[in-house]
Amino acid sequence: MIAIYITLNDAAEARTIGNELLEKNFANCVNFFPITCIYKYKGEVTEEPETVLIVKTKEDYYDHVLGVVKSHINYDNFVGALKVEHINDDFTHWLNGIVK
After folding, report:
1. Radius of gyration of the chain from Cα atoms?
2. Are the C-beta atoms of 32 and 15 separated by less than 8 Å?
3. CB atoms < 10 A from the CB of 81, how many?
4. Which pick of 16, 38, 79, 91 has the fewest CB atoms within 10 Å?
5. Residue 40: other Cβ atoms inside 10 A
6. What pLDDT is attached to residue 93?
7. Rounded CA separation 82/75 (Å)
8. Is the entire prediction scored with pTM above 0.85?
9. With contact defined as beta carbons under 8 Å apart, do 4 and 79 qualify?
10. Across the strands, what pairs with 1?
11. 3-class DSSP state for residue 91?
């Protein structure tokens, strides 16, 4: 299993992307929440609100998730997979029942 950490502009983007991932069975669960981001881009330091979307899925689905994200946004953002080494059996069973 992997958890894909994605930064987005707002909760509306996260909700739209999350729902599509669930409808396509590319994930069994997503979480999103607001954060504050400070970053350097094109020589300037900027601070602004963002939303993090965390997608729980199988390793083979990273490219599918990335494709859905990129179909909804046209800006540079972070999409990174974090391998989950230990996971409870009940969650694994749920994941495997949804993401085939």
Report:
1. 14
2. yes
3. 16
4. 38
5. 8
6. 95
7. 22
8. yes
9. yes
10. none
11. helix
pLDDT digits (tens, 9 = 90+) for 64-89: 999 999 999 998 899 999 999 999 99
The predicted-structure confidence for 33-72, as pLDDT tens digits, reads as follows 999 999 998 999 999 999 999 999 999 999 999 999 999 9
* CA–CA distance, 88 with 100 (Å, rounded to integer): 18
Q: What is the DSSP string of 20-76?
A: HHHHTTS-SEEEEEEEEEEEEETTEEEEEEEEEEEEEE-GGGHHHHHHHHHHH--S-
- The string of DSSP letters for 2-34 reads EEEEEEES-HHHHHHHHHHHHHTTS-SEEEEEE
